Request: fold
Amino acid sequence: MISDSNSSSDRRITVLAGHLALHHHAHTSSISASPTSGYHHNSVFSHVLRGPEDPILGVTVAYNKDPSPVKLNLGVGAYRTEEGKPLVLNVVRTVEQQLVNDRSRVKEYLPITGLADFNKLSAKLIFGADSPAIRENRITTVQCLSGTGSLRVGAEFLAKHYHQHTIYIPQPTWGNHPKVFTLAGLSVKTYRYYDPATRGLNFQGLLEDLGSAPSGAIVLLHACAHNPTGVDPTLQQWEQIRKLMRSRRLMPFFDSAYQGFASGSLDADAQPIRMFVADGGELLAAQSYAKNMGLYGERVGALSIVCSTADIASKVESQLKLVIRPMYSNPPIHGASIVAFILKDRNLYNEWTIELKAMADRIISMRQQLFDALRARGTPGDWSHIIKQIGMFTFTGLNSEQVAFMTKEYHIYMTSDGRISMAGLSSKTVPHLADAIHAAATRVA
Reply:
């Protein structure tokens, strides 16, 4: 009896379990079906519109889709070798290996202000080892996320603690500048800078616009190798700009993305900033190691604020921490360690300056080769601006129709304003580009 009773009870449990399993399966089926039916069409984000491609990064997207074997990307702001390949500096590889092999190194958080050695050495690099402002402890330097992050931190600090909220930026300037400053809480206005007629500096317009800016306004200045035009003031013009700005109490905010990368000399490219520091006045400077050390993706940069006293510099730093903490808390350690390692070792530093000069010289050589190729073809127009301009970019003077023609007919990709990255050229590709420019200049109005 007992065994019968147990077996019937087992049977009942088995049948019940089967019913439950079927019920559960049906229930879960209906649940799993609902995201693809009801919810899928009622997303709370369904009103979101597709954002436009970044004008510079969008060029690379179009280039990547082009199957042509002769295609050429002159949109990207990154150095390329003669073979068209990205370059990691030998000195960077050497240091990176040493850092990896050092078992005492850990991955702990950095302080909010970043790696102390990196900050000290970065200030020395941009302001000069003998800078009076460094000697008097009047500079606060904080490690930031490359040049963009340094600009953003500086802009947010100014929006919170500076009496003027208007920043004047050159016309044209790097495409990200207006967004960085606007989102940080500043009001953006422009001053005349580039003269399309001469493909040079509109110096008179610049002086007039800065002369009529309200007292105390912030002014963004490219330290060297102006992006996108490649047009820089002479040192005499810089001196006039400095005198005008100091007399109007305008606040200089330097963007130094190309120190050493423009002329091949770290000191020459920092000269405009040092002129402004030498007069004892205050300023901000954002610097980046993306180009001059090839550390693009490591996002290594610094923001320095030169103050009138050491006490004020210390207070400013305390407020910069309050800007950084809720933004990204503290900066990454790896790239900054590479920079600090190179800057504090004389041999490594010298090796870096040699590699840096080689990059700058190759770009200068590409300018000369392109100019010579256009002259040899008898291309209509005066192309001397190509060798007068400096740094990574050249404002060719080509219009958007000519740019579109060169993309369609010659598979050459650049931003629609005619800006080309000289670093994307090589001796092999110069003739192809010169042919395309010649055709655009002769066949497209």
Notes: The two ends are 105 Å apart (CA to CA). The longest strand covers residues 139-145. Confidence is low (pLDDT under 50) at residues 1-37. DSSP finds 16 helices and 13 strands in the chain.
